[in-house]
Amino acid sequence: MTDESKYVNNQYWYKLKTVQSEEDVKKRRGGQLRLSDVEELEKVCPEERRFLVEMIKSDARIPICKVFAGHVKDLSVFDSRLGDYRFPYLEVFSCFNKNKSIPIDHQFILNQKMLRMLYLGGIHFKSHPELPDLSSFSDLKYLYFHFYGSNPVLAPFGNPPNLERIKVERESGLEKLGNLGSLPSLVELDLSENAFTSLESFANLDAPKLKKLNLNHNKIVDLCGFEPISQFKSLEILDLSHNLVETVDARASPPSLEKLSLDHNN
Question: Which of 45, 138, 229, 234 is deepest in the core (most CB within 10 A)?
Answer without folding.
Answer: 229
